[in-house]
Amino acid sequence: MSVLYSTATFIFERFSDITSKNTLVSDAFSSEFPEISTLNTPEDAPVEIPRFVLFSHHGFSTVIITSNMIQLSTKFDNNFSEDWIGRCKPYLEKKVNLVFNFFKELNINPKYCGLTVNSLLTVDNSSVAKIENLFLKKKFISNLNLHDVLIKQSFDFENKYFINLQLQNQRYQQNQITNLESIQILPEMNNKIGITLDMNDRKIANRSRDYFSTKESFEKILIIADDVLKSGLDNLVSKGEIQC
Q1: What residues contact 224, with CB distance under 8 A and at least 6 apart?
Q2: What is the CA radius of gyration of the chain?
């Protein structure tokens, strides 16, 4: 399994003058995100318009700050992608700590938070056949061959968290350049499954106005991710099920 990308999102009540907090943004994030762009966004602009964009030392992570959201997006290279527990997770924890320190400075209480992890799993043969055999009892059009497949299931965990799991076959072709005038088209590859794991505490946030996400809330989301990514995905594609 290879972990490709992750996105951590923190939603809070609108902070109308967050653009004026550029010094606090720099103090909170510059140790890990030395490149900080302050955007000239009008105060009355829609909340989803970025106010700050931050870039990590080597460009693998980006932080976007709006007036009601902080989003941390990360791309994992080959030095990280094969080791969720030892490398990816500690990397995320270090960056997320900065987010919660920033919230503390501004007395912001995030309403809910979430983490999405995109990974890729290689199977022996056709990824379409693997997903079909494990999870599909019937096809929508029974007399035709299945070309692509995408399935998604959502779960309620501890009456507090949503866990969304999506599987999709991945097709790709490898182009080999033999000279400047010709490109040899190699056979299409279809032995990989793209897996999107999305976890958040929005269930309890939707139900309780008094609920706010904490650092511990996000740590619990990371524990859920551990259960799924550490060994669960192998069981998912071999047995068709996992447990959290």
Answers
A1: 157, 161, 163, 199, 244
A2: 21
> What distance lies between CA 177 and its chain's CA centroid?
34
**What digits encode the pLDDT tens for the residues 221-232?**
999 999 888 766
C-alpha dihedral over 214, 219, 220, 225, to 10 degrees?
140
Place of tokens 């299409």: 188
Going by C-beta distance under 8 Å and a sequence separation of 6 or more, which residues neighbour residue 185? Answer: 173, 175
CA distance 221 to 199: 6
pLDDT at 84 over 60: yes
Kindly compute the dihedral angle of the four CA atoms of residues 237, 240, 243, 244, in this order, to the nearest 10 degrees. 60
- Note the pTM of the prediction, 2 decimals: 0.90
Question: How many other C-beta atoms are found inside a 10 Å radius of the C-beta of residue 36?
Answer: 16
The amino acid sitting at 38 is T
Pair 146, 32: CB distance under 8 Å: no
The proportion of the chain whose per-residue pLDDT surpasses 90, expressed as a percent, equals: 71
* Three-state secondary structure call for residue 167: strand
Q: Which two tokens stand for residue 236?
A: 């998912």
What is the chain's length?
244
- CA geometry: angle 146, 150, 156, nearest 5 deg: 140
DSSP string, 8-52: EEEE-S--TTGGGGHHHHHHHHTTT--EEEE----TTS-TTS-SE
Neighbouring C-beta atoms of residue 194, cutoff 10 Å: 16
Provide the 10 A C-beta neighbour count for residue 109.
13
